[in-house]
Amino acid sequence: MTTADFARNRDNFCYRHPDRQSFVLCQRCLRTICPECQTPAAVGVVCPECMKEQRSSQTNAQKKAERRWARSRPVVVSDARPLATYAIIGITALVYIVTLIPGFGRTVESALMFWAPALYPPLTGTFEPWRLLSVSLVHSGIWHIALNMLALLLIGRSLEPLLGRWRFVALYLLSTLGGSVAVTLLSFGTPVVGASGAIFGLFGALIVIGRHIGANIAGIAVVLAINLAIGFIPGFNVSWQAHVGGLVVGVIVGFIFTRTRATSQRKLQIALLIATGVGLVALLAIPVFTVLPAYAV
User: Fold this and answer.
1) Residues 140, 96: one domain?
2) 203 and 288, same domain (yes or no)
């Protein structure tokens, strides 16, 4: 369901397929185009009309060079499936299967789970930064991974086509990082597993982007609120810190995407995403002055 503002704002729909929502613009004419209408270019994608115009303006020498050296002409992207979402689910499921192998599986889980002290050599004598992201690959049980991957599938099917695959992956990774940083700052020393931080980041970005394009986000907000509240109920073995951290980062990244949508702002968008990641890593310095002295005592 959408609001009247959403329906009236045609910039939120593909100009060739008015019934298809999209968040991707043609780099030449800046019109919104769905995955079926996107043709890969040197930078970004272009719409069929711009591609036709570009080919018609080629000189004979350019056409000859293209025929000689290009393996194939750019093809229209007709596959609108959320492939990044499927890939993340597949990799996560594979890791979970590996963790079920007797003996070896426990070692893999221990190496990938998030444990903040492993980031600080003075405490453990090792430095294992991959745990900040690998935490999303390991889960405590079948229901844990099933619910997380179901949520990822449901959100990814809607969000990935709007953002594009690489933006979606960036959002997922930054949200995972945000959840790990929040656990480090709010629950230092607590082992954590699961992709919940990343999932809450997707929720946060979906709400921000949905509100920006005028969609009705009431249902999503209610589901998010319920899941967030569960983490604070005594007896539930849930890391609310990872949820909050992922959610906050997802909102930030969603805001970045909505404010840097134009092709001319692509470099700014990348810079802001990098700055977000650097800022999160910088926050990991806080325990050096607050937590580590207490451990040393």
Assistant:
1) yes
2) yes
Of the pLDDT bands very low, low, confident and very high (cuts 50, 70, 90), residue 293 is confident
- Sign of the torsion angle spanned by Cα atoms 151, 152, 157, 158: positive
Domain that holds residue 262: 83-296
Separation between Cα atoms, residue 192 and residue 240, nearest integer Å? 11
More confident residue, 110 or 218: 110
Q: Which amino acid is residue 87, in one-letter code? A: A
Question: Which DSSP helix (H) or strand (E) runs through 45?
Answer: strand 45-46
Number of domain units in the chain: 2
- pTM of the model as a whole: 0.75
Q: Could you tell me if residue 77 is inside a domain?
A: no
Q: What is the DSSP string of 220-251?
A: HHHHHHHHHHHTTSTT----HHHHHHHHHHHH
**Which pLDDT does position 247 carry in this prediction?**
96
Report CA dihedral (117, 282, 192, 166) to the nearest 10 degrees: -140
